[in-house]
Amino acid sequence: MTKYVINGGKTLNGEVTISGAKNAAVAIVPAALLADGPVRLENVPKIIDVTLQMEIMRELGAQIRQINATTVEIQNTQNPSLKPHELERKLRASYYLLGVLLGKYGFAEVAMPGGCNFGGVRPIDQHIKGFEALGAKVTLPKGGYIRVEAPEDGLHGAHIYFDVVTVGATMNIMLAAVLAKGQTIMENCAKEPHIVDLANFLNAMGADVKGAGTDVIKIRGVESLHGGSYSIIPDQIEAGTFMAAVAACGGSVLVKNVIPRHLECITAKLREMSVEVTEFDDAVLVRREGKLTKTNIKTLPYPGFPTDMQPQMTTALCLAEGTSIITEGIWGSRYRYTEELTRMGANIHVDGAIAVVEGVKELNGAPVRAHDLRAGAAMVIAGLAAKGVTEVEQVQNIERGYETLVEKFVALGADMYRSEIPESAENK
Ligand code: EPZ
After folding, report:
1. Quick one: which of 199, 216, 301, 386 could link to 209 by a disulfide (CB 3.0–4.6 Å)?
2. Where phosphoenolpyruvate is bound, by residue (predicted)?
């Protein structure tokens, strides 16, 4: 097993280049199977979730060539062997294969989604509601698989109203509907940048998707999608993670390859915390020299404050002057990581969806665990800001969604490294 060893207390200075967006890539990479010709994708992040998806796609018969570090070429075959795959259990985002394979072949059987284990069960009732509206039969055969089958004459357009704003269902129904017969209207859609990125990708391959980024998305089904090339947007959450790290540690960092508009709510909150953020065309300069000051945060669907930035910002607020109130508006309670912060000297009181953070003078290094992807990023930020040594275990949860995180922080002056723990030592 691997852990990160961090000797904290240093400021962060220099430049970091942000990778392609994980939550766009995990939908766009499988979506390439919808196209009949070769699809070239650029700015694909080299992260475990995407690597796992490409393994599953190869099992389904796709040819995938790594052109360079961040560019892949995907050529679908016409008749994949559709079989469940144990890898899918590890991936929340494997459920996008449901929409893709249903849309392309009229059938899919995918393992129940895995992914981050916070906030209890991760429901998919809205995905099922959308697939059934398009005419598919959805069954939950034993063994934790979901099976979707289109009618003989194929999927047909539908008018779907989502009961909750859901990124996954908005993406999944879009994937299934682009080749369906007729028009599909989806209402109460999620508006995240990665939703727009998926729609832009599908349209570049010949689809007809309008309204992505608003509450209402209209899709006119087309006969087929052709190949082409597309570059995935930069990752707003990775960028925000580095911005929160500068807030916690102090220093001055130019965060490059970003779309500042996607970072507006994060920038606004950091400025309330007395962090200086200067916006350029495709970069932001983040500086914190003086004291951090408190603020309140409520996570909401985009363009509200992103839930995937909640652990990182809460960690920075542990070191702010004053008391901050955090409200988790998406996942019920996403605060398991605060137990680890408390062991480092943080003063946090959690009650359901609310966390009350009393700023403290400093955090002290300690052995901690990365319970999930963004909680793990928060542990790294805490370790970088703390006095003394922090060891972060279960870092595979971090490397699911962050490309070369250690190398990027070391380039900013962090004293941290990856250490391999022999299996035997792990069980002590
Ligand atoms: C996506 O998860 C992201 N994952 C999550 O990021 C992110 O936290 C979440 O969107 C919200 O932005 C990927 O994109 C792979 P949802 P998803 O469907 O699609 C409820 C990370 O750190 N809901 O938008 O699973 C659900 O319980 C990960 O990168 C239903 O009730 O989230 C939640 O309260 C963690 N029924 C809310 O909607 C459904 O059928 C939002 O969930 C689906 C969702």
Report:
1. 199
2. 22-23
Place of tokens 């998707």: 209
Sequence-distant (≥ 6) Cβ neighbours of residue 190 within 8 angstroms: 165, 166, 167, 170, 171, 301, 302
Of the options 3.40.50.150, 3.65.10.10, 3.40.640.10, 3.40.50.1110, the CATH number for the domain spanning 2-19+234-426: 3.65.10.10
Distance CA 251, CA 343 (A): 25
pTM score = 0.95
Instruction: Spell out the domain ranges in the chain.
Output: 2-19+234-426, 22-231
Q: Are 336 and 308 in contact (CB under 8 A)?
A: no
Inter-CA distances, 387 with 101, 249, 289, 383, Å = 50, 11, 18, 8
Task: Ligand 1 pocket test: pick from 164, 165, 266, 305 the residue with the most ligand atoms within 8 Å of its Cβ.
Answer: 164
- Per-residue pLDDT tens, the chain, 428 aa: give them: 899 999 999 999 999 999 999 999 999 999 999 999 999 999 999 999 899 899 888 888 899 999 999 999 999 976 655 665 565 665 666 789 999 999 999 998 887 765 556 655 678 999 999 999 999 999 987 777 888 999 999 999 999 999 999 999 999 999 999 999 999 999 999 999 999 999 999 999 999 999 999 999 999 999 999 999 999 999 999 999 999 999 999 999 999 999 999 999 999 999 999 999 999 999 999 999 999 999 999 999 999 999 999 999 999 999 999 999 999 999 988 999 999 999 999 999 999 999 999 999 999 999 999 999 999 999 999 999 999 999 999 999 999 999 999 999 999 999 999 998 776 655 54
